[in-house]
Design goal:
alpha+beta, globular, 2 domains, 12 strands, Thiol Ester Dehydrase, Chain A
Length: about 300
Amino acid sequence: MSEQEPNPQQLVADLVHLLTVEPEEPDNHFIGPPRDDGVGRMFGGQVIAQALQAAQRTVTDGKQAHSLHAYFLRGGKEGPPVHYRVAADFEGRSFANRRVVASQANEEGELIPILNLTASFQLPEEGLEHVDAAMPDVPPPEELRSDMEMRQTILAAMGDKMSEAQRNMILRPRPIDMRTSDKLHWMNTEPREPSAHTWFRTVAPLPDDQALHRAVIAYASDYTLLGTSALPHGLSWMRGELTGASLDHAVWFHRPARADEWLLYVTESPWSGAGRGFNRGHIFNRHGELVGSVAQEGMMRRRAQTAKQ
């Protein structure tokens, strides 16, 4: 590790800072910090996680987030902070609902909405239980190479086919360690079945704060998901063959989970068409328990120069 690269503890500390929204006037308004090293377009998982954190800051009676549904309106930009306005639309005995609008200043200084999110909260309780989703049999994370190692290997093989800025973005140290047992879309050049299995956890321990762990899981759930719908086509965003953007994103939290312990993210894409790809995900802990579910639809279009080939 070079002296310029942050250690795992610093990477996770930076992630915790990134997902810590601060109150601003008037009440139920919050501001989310930008990444210190961010360039270009903001990662969708970042604005989802910050919006969830803003909603969670307004629920103080023990209710916990059990689901969120978000729509991306515009791409956020790295650099300017994001402002979050939270509305308490419902406050019941067992459930509560929050509606969040995330906005970012344009060049004229006007706040423009970039994401709408609703989150539902519930007081913990016992209930009827069943699970109709089995954890697949995949190699444990200890037997797999990290996503970063594979990126370094593939980029070395690509030579000068990518710009220096693209290479720096791809090789930027991340606070989430991801290990896949499959070829993700950026590794895949041949059509294959639309499913992937990826272990993830933070690279260092997190504080004992379940609200933060939910936010980190929401943050990480935006990784690998949209790329699953590209697998049957043998095309990749990283190789410049596709253009795309997330359109919506939903997460259901079924049981408490720690984002600093290995979680298996199983993704599948049952459909793509009309310039869109639909993707679903299940998240399991090491005990095989289903801790969360995810769904997302995104824009997915073949680049014009690729289409002509």
